[in-house]
Amino acid sequence: MATVLSVSGSPSASSRTNRLLRHLDRRLTAQGHEVIPLDVRTVPAEALLGADFKHPAIVEVTELFERADGIVVGTPVYKASYSGVLKALLDLLPQYALLGKTVLPLATGGSTAHVLAIDYALRPVLSSMGAAHIVQGWFTLDKDITVQEDGSLTVAPAATEALTQIVDQFSTALGRRPVLAAAG
């Protein structure tokens, strides 16, 4: 099947966004995809904030994007937009880092007032980076994601149903990925 890069744009290791992505990664893996998790918060701050394109961590992340057939991008919503740490990473990637890729945008937040952050903030950036196909994204309310004492995740039934459909659509879209001719 396909190689999927699952990018968590949360600055917190214990965030609902991060945990939700890793939960969805298991579904993609069960569908036969190779999933590579990437937590942007683990990229050295000096590389991100210093715009060090040649930093080994940035070079490695760029290679992960090149290798992937599909990208899942998850972010908490802050101030009606995606996270700053995700923005810093996207700014350091090549202009067309998503060329030919199928992309699934996901967001979490505390209020439905932020539900359009995917379409009005994140989707235009992903599109400008050359994504071949950006599937329907999904916004999950924080209240619908519960982290149990053992670290496991429970997602409200309605949100689970929607996320299952969205992830399955993404998986199907990966199978229909267009083949790009090599330049030159």
Helix and strand topology:
Layout: E1 3-8, H1 16-30, E2 34-39, H2 45-49, H3 56-67, E3 70-76, H4 84-92, E4 102-109, H5 117-128, E5 133-134, E6 138-141, E7 145-147, E8 153-155, H6 157-175
Parallel strand pairs: 1-2, 1-3, 3-4, 4-5, 4-6
Antiparallel strand pairs: 7-8
Order of helices and strands: EHEHHEHEHEEEEH
**How would you state the average pLDDT, rounded?**
92
Low-confidence stretches: 178-184
Total of helices: 6
How far is the N terminus from the C terminus? 27 Å
Largest sheet: 6 strands, parallel
Number of strand segments: 8
How big is the Rg?
16 Å
Give the CATH topology. Answer: Rossmann fold
Oligomeric form of this entry? single chain
Q: Which term fits the overall shape?
A: globular
Number of individual domains: 1
The proportion of residues forming helix, as a percent range, comes to 25-40%
Please name the CATH architecture.
Answer: 3-Layer(aba) Sandwich
CATH C-level class is Alpha Beta
Q: Beta-sheet strand percentage?
A: 15-25%
Per CATH, the superfamily is: Flavodoxin domain
InterPro entries: Flavoprotein-like_sf, FMN_Rdtase-like_dom, NAD(P)H-dep_FMN_reductase, NADPH-dep_FMN_reduc_SsuE
Keywords: Flavoprotein, FMN, Oxidoreductase
GO molecular function, one term: FMN reductase [NAD(P)H] activity
GO biological process, one term: alkanesulfonate catabolic process
